[in-house]
Amino acid sequence: MTDLFFANTYSPLSSQEIIAKEKANMDAPRFAHCVRVSQTAQKLARLNHYDEDKAALAGFVHDYAKQVPVSEYREVIKTQGFDQDLLNWNRAIWHGIVGTYFIKRDLQITDSEILTAVDRHTTGDVEMTTLDKIVFMADFIEPGRDFPGVEEARQVTFANLDAGVGYQLAHSLSFLAEKRNKIYPRTFKAYNVWSIKDN
Ligand SMILES: [Fe+2]
Ligand SMILES: [Fe+2]
User: Fold this and answer.
1) Could you tell me the distance, in angstroms and rounded to a whole number, from the CA of residue 63 to the centre of ligand 1?
2) What is the pLDDT along the chain (199 residues), one digit of tens a residue?
3) What distance in angstroms lies between residue 25's CA and the mean position of ligand 1's atoms?
């Protein structure tokens, strides 16, 4: 954990304050995942000529609100101007889209690129910036991930970030359909943009 440091370019809080707040907001395994996503995001930024510090911070905070209580989420969705359809979904979706509210409130990060990357990290989207793709893929391939195909996902992503996005969306859609889980519409739309091969 010693190599974690964020210049306070994106928040008036110090690196230590951000780390302490994040640690207090989640259990230890989730925190360790966020550290690995931060490191993987930094690596992907280097490979894709993007700002490494910004990617490291966005990766670190991506799951900041993953363990916020459901009741608190429902209250925020009702009172803070979010799409009321979100009430029909769950924390798997909320912690990206609505997670941005808690990141702004608690970590005082207002940078729209970082917030958008968090917003899109669970669902993907039709339009994705380089940072969106970096966080989306770092979350999927960080070294702690272990699922059939993860090695291929890593190879694809390190070779070509866009191809990685296509790989993950196809993988997630199949996985959710296999379990007969509900699929967020934005994920379908994203799949049609990023995953389709010309044939
Ligand atoms: Fe997440
Ligand atoms: Fe995550």
Assistant:
1) 5
2) 446 888 889 999 999 999 999 999 999 999 999 999 999 999 999 999 999 999 999 999 999 999 999 999 999 999 999 999 999 999 999 999 999 999 999 999 999 999 999 999 999 999 999 999 999 999 999 999 999 999 999 999 999 999 999 999 999 999 999 999 999 999 999 999 999 987 6
3) 14
Ligand lying nearest the CA atom of residue 59: 2
Between CA 93 and CA 110 the distance in angstroms is 21
Q: Exposed, middle or buried: residue 117 (CB in 10 Å: 0-12, 13-18, 19+)?
A: buried
Q: Give the Å distance between the CA of 95 and the centre of ligand 1.
A: 6
Which pTM value belongs to this model? 0.96
Closest ligand (CA of 122)? 1
For residue 29, how far is its CA from the centre of ligand 1 (angstroms)? 13
3 Cα: distance to centroid of ligand 1 (angstroms): 22
Residue 23 class from Cβ within 10 Å (0-12 exposed, 13-18 middle, 19+ buried)? middle
Ligand found nearest the CA of 98: 1
Q: Tell how far the Cα of 13 is from the centroid of ligand 2, in angstroms.
A: 22
In order of their start, the domains of the chain are: 15-194 (1.10.3210.10)
